[in-house]
Amino acid sequence: MAVKTLIHKIKVKERRFTEDVLTVKELMDMLAIGKNKAYQLLHDGTIESFRIGNNYKVLRQSVQEYIYKHKK
After folding, report:
1. Tens-digit pLDDT profile for residues 12-31
2. Which CATH number fits domain 21-70: 1.10.10, 3.60.21, 1.10.3210, 1.10.287?
3. Residues 46, 66: contact at Cβ < 8 Å?
């Protein structure tokens, strides 16, 4: 397998994973909310998250579930 092809496949896999994992800033943008509200949703478990070091990460699926539960 050519090195270029292998590097391309790795980049595609990385991109797919990062599209499924959001930062707090992306969560804020997605829901059009402020930082305090975003952290409140994460701290009280309303939106599931996990931490890597000091950084919260949110699965896109968790945000979608939150949206579906709260839509009117």
Report:
1. 444 555 678 999 999 999 99
2. 1.10.10
3. yes
